[in-house]
Design goal:
Blueprint lengths: L6 H4 L3 E4 L1 H4 L28 H6 L1 H7 L3 E4 L3 E3 L7 E7 L5 H14 L3 E6 L9 H9 L43 H17 L3 E4 L8 H14 L4 E4 L16 E4 H12 L21 H13 L3 H4 L3 E3 L8 H4 L4 H13 L3 E5 L27 H16 L2 H4 L1 E8 L2 E8 L2 E8 L5 E6 L9 E6 L4 E3 L4 E7 L3 E8 L1
Parallel strand pairs: 1-2, 1-10, 2-5, 5-6, 6-7, 7-8, 8-9, 9-10
Antiparallel strand pairs: 3-4, 11-12, 12-13, 13-18, 14-17, 15-16, 15-18
Helix pairs in contact: 7-8, 9-10, 9-13, 13-14
């Protein structure tokens, strides 16, 4: 079948936001018992971030270069992360409610910023109406077939063995029975409702646990019938060919890219403790050749239309932050960010990475954004802006071809081409400066000149099918553009 994916995603720079921790507004009424904004995050505490506060920070995001937002769940829930959904048709009142989301969505769209929301459809919560009905009424409830129940009374709280299917056996997360037609119709209605409301797509939480291709095929058909350009991206931590044939998801969260970047840019100098339990573990140390191999294998798994919209990321709300994994080696973060912005796919920045926000395993990776600029690494943010601007300026970096032309020791060079527009990305992950000669025969003609658009000002002329004497400082990368 012909694979079609949303065109806008090819040109997007995503920004993942954990709504409780990004920004809050005085315009939204707050409960009294909130954690201090700057206090260490906890599993159960709330910081009081809200959607109006995010809308008020759109200038910041637009200045950074962001063109799409991915929100962790925003529906009514009693968890700070909101993966315990109570009401799929209501925005959490602590976030400001549905009207606040309307305001945010309209404000984002007025700036041509897309909004993708999180759909948690494998499981709900103890407070979900249909499950609460079964909890209160036992065998007399008409909603028993919405779940996988194995006995009564329901053991919904700790202390007794859970007698219904729950995600990872967690009593608070009863698994929905998607074989039941009423459940399927309910989820599809939710999917349609928020796309009609104006959302630009769905990020699907643990979709592989709904082990039913026909379910996701119908989900796609329902969503795309309303908005053919809606983006559907699944949280799949491994290779995802099953879901990426053009009839289910548009993309997955590309954790294989994450894993490769950690292996190459951090090498052996990474915090292994922060990687234990991660969905992409174990991580292998890579040299340039094996890193190039990993990048190419990843691209070889899918149609180019899929590769161009894969959600590439260095970290997320489910992992320790990249900066902490690499033991605060800022050069590793910068090299990985340059790769993120110049590799095929849609790059996604986890909120705060651009100003040096660190964090260990959940919940530490979900710190509140420090809006006191004295706490920012402004030079790092400037580097993020530069890399994002390069991606937005050159189409070759968004949907051009990708060819590795040099991979030795700690140096990697690849070419992105789109028609006459050609860029060379050269990266040195080593601890010493390097001077390299790169064979570019067949990609460039002798006599053509390339100049730096990132890095120390320099120019190189192709001769004998080579670019010779490319100078790469230690732990830095450069980008060259063909002068036509």
């Amino acid at each position: 079948m012909t694979v079609t994916t949303p065109d806008w995603v090819r040109h997007a720079v995503f920004y993942e936001i954990f709504p409780d921790r990004f920004a809050k507004s005085d315009a939204v009424h707050k409960p009294s018992n909130l954690e201090p904004w700057d206090a260490k995050p906890t599993n159960y505490g709330f910081k009081g971030g809200d959607l109006v506060g995010i809308a008020e920070k759109l200038d910041y995001l637009q200045d950074l270069g962001v063109t799409a937002l991915y929100f962790c769940p925003i529906f009514a829930s009693t968890a700070n992360h909101r993966y315990h959904t109570h009401d799929y048709f209501t925005i959490d009142p602590i976030l400001g409610g549905t009207q606040a989301f309307r305001q945010l969505l309209d404000s984002a769209h007025a700036r041509d910023i897309k909004v993708v929301i999180d759909g948690v459809f494998n499981h709900a919560s103890r407070g979900f109406y249909q499950f609460n009905h079964a909890l209160e009424n036992g065998a007399a409830s008409p909603y028993l077939d919405w779940f996988h129940i194995h006995g009564f009374p329901l053991h919904a709280y700790e202390g007794k063995h859970t007698n219904y299917d729950a995600w990872w056996g967690i009593p608070a997360l009863p698994k929905l029975n998607t074989d039941t037609p009423a459940v399927r119709d309910f989820i599809f209605e939710v999917a349609e409702y928020w796309i009609k409301f104006g959302c630009d797509g769905w990020r699907l939480d643990v979709p592989g646990e709904i082990n039913d291709d026909s379910f996701w095929q119908e989900f796609r058909a329902r969503v795309k019938a309303i908005n053919p350009e809606a983006y559907i991206v699944g949280e799949i931590w491994h290779e995802g060919q099953r879901w990426l044939k053009g009839d289910q998801f548009d993309a997955i969260m590309n954790y294989q890219f994450t894993k490769a970047c950690i292996g190459f840019f951090a090498g052996d100098k990474r915090d292994e403790h922060l990687l234990t339990g991660a969905g992409y573990a174990p991580v292998t140390t890579l040299d340039a050749q094996s890193f190039a191999y990993s990048l190419n294998v990843n691209l070889g798994l899918y149609d180019k239309a899929i590769n161009d919209v894969q959600l590439n990321l260095l970290d997320s709300h489910d992992t320790a932050r990249f900066l902490s994994i690499v033991k605060h080696d800022q050069s590793a973060l910068k090299l990985a960010t340059l790769t993120l912005m110049t590799y095929p796919g849609a790059p996604c920045v986890y909120y705060g990475n651009e100003i040096g926000l660190d964090g260990g395993k959940d919940p530490d990776c979900r710190k509140a954004f420090p809006w006191d600029k004295s706490q920012w690494d402004t030079a790092l943010r400037a580097f993020f802006k530069t890399c994002i601007a390069l991606r937005k300026k050159y189409r070759a970096l968004r949907d051009g071809s990708f060819n590795v032309v040099y991979a030795e020791d700690k140096c990697l060079v690849y070419v992105r081409s789109q028609g006459d527009e050609k860029l060379v990305i050269a990266i040195n992950s080593g601890a010493a400066a390097a001077t390299i000669n790169v064979v570019v025969n067949g990609m460039f003609q002798d006599g053509q000149m390339l100049q730096t658009v990132l890095g120390k000002k320099a120019s190189y002329t192709v001769g004998g099918g080579r670019l010779t004497g490319i100078t790469l400082p230690k732990r830095e990368g450069i980008v060259l553009r063909l002068i036509t």
